[in-house]
Design a protein that fits this description.
By secondary structure, the chain is an alpha/beta fold. 32% of the residues lie in helices and 21% in strands. The protein folds into two domains: 26-137 and 309-316, ATPase, nucleotide binding domain (Nucleotidyltransferase, domain 5), CATH 3.30.420; 144-299, ATPase, nucleotide binding domain (Nucleotidyltransferase, domain 5, 2-Layer Sandwich). Pfam families: ROK.
Length: 318
């Protein structure tokens, strides 16, 4: 198969507002992470009807470990009339082949043909995408991005990345990444990719935890939620810097794509309204004008958000 860009087309006769079952069919959603498979059955309006999850040894290298976990979690689809199954996978994926290429710290997922396995298990068509990219589809069909033609969905926390809907299409060119390795500081720390100053070196949980430890915050005090709630000036300054670092990447995305709306997922939700408002005000301060002033909103809780994205992949598929 040619490795060309496949636009995610919208199917005109599928209306997510309709009650499930009218034309037959519910949505299957699967999330594949190192050591964990989550599955959910959703209505076309995005209501979760049933969930299941199964664990596997992330250190193991035998792909049958993953097969067994998929089988266990996919039992939630038994006897259902599925429109399809969307898979949100960690790591590097090949959406055309329906395969996971590589996931750090999970050798059993390397090269795993997750789409073929789930198609055998569910009897339904299966589409696979990177989890940071599908999040935007959850927001587009069921969340804060509903009705919009362009916006961005942002994964924060241990995983950092941006998914972009532009003029109704998800920007997902083969080989494209989710932005975590954009260089945001010329002489910054070394990144896991071997280069210096990537966005993820300053805007993920690891950075926050390490800086918090330097200021004497440890354990439960070193989380975004605790730092936001703290009266300590050092905590407040750290939260400000974390928001600024997040905006280093978002401002670039805004300049290139004029997304207008940014939906935050993951750790940012723990920071609540205070953190959201900080990110928005920094982003607006960096805006160069011309076009919609950027707005920042909080998305669904992390685990549901990704599953909604996977379900959105089904509605967006041809
Ligand atoms: Zn990097």
């Amino acid at each position: 198969m040619a490795h060309e860009r496949i636009p995610l087309r919208l199917v005109p006769d599928l209306r997510p507002d309709e009650p499930a079952g009218r034309d037959g069919g519910v949505l299957g959603a699967v999330e594949v992470l190192p050591g964990l498979v989550r599955a959910a059955l959703l209505t076309r309006a995005g209501a979760v009807r049933a969930r299941a999850e199964a664990r596997f040894d992330p250190a193991g290298s035998d792909p049958s470990l993953v097969d067994a976990a998929l089988r266990e979690a996919a039992a939630v689809f038994d006897g259902q009339s599925l429109l399809g199954v969307g898979v949100a996978a960690a790591g590097v994926v090949d959406p055309v082949a329906g395969r996971i290429i590589e996931v750090n710290d999970a050798p059993a997922l390397r090269g795993h043909p997750v789409a073929d396995r789930l198609a055998e298990l569910s009897g339904a068509p299966v589409r696979v995408e990177h989890r940071a990219r599908v999040q935007v589809l959850g927001d587009r069909w069921f969340g804060a991005g509903r009705g919009r033609r362009s916006f961005a969905s942002v994964a924060t926390g241990d995983v950092l990345g941006v998914g972009i809907l532009y003029e109704g299409e998800v920007l997902a060119p083969p080989g494209g990444r989710s932005g975590a390795h954009m260089t945001v500081t010329a002489s910054g720390e070394f990144c896991t990719c071997g280069r210096r100053g990537c966005w993820k070196t300053v805007a993920t949980t690891r950075w926050l935890r390490e800086r918090a430890a330097e200021h004497g915050f440890s354990g439960g005090e070193a989380t975004l939620a605790a730092l936001v709630a703290s009266d300590a000036p050092a905590a407040s300054r750290l939260v400000d810097r974390y928001a600024e670092n997040l905006v280093l990447g978002l401002a670039t995305v805004q300049q290139l794509f004029a997304c207008g709306l940014f939906v935050l997922h993951g750790e940012a939700l723990d920071g609540g309204e205070r953190f959201r408002a900080l990110v928005e005000s920094r982003l607006r301060a960096d805006a160069l004008g011309g076009g919609e002033l950027p707005t920042v909103v909080l998305g669904e809780a992390a685990d549901t958000g990704t599953l909604l994205g996977a379900a959105g992949l089904v509605l967006s598929g041809a």
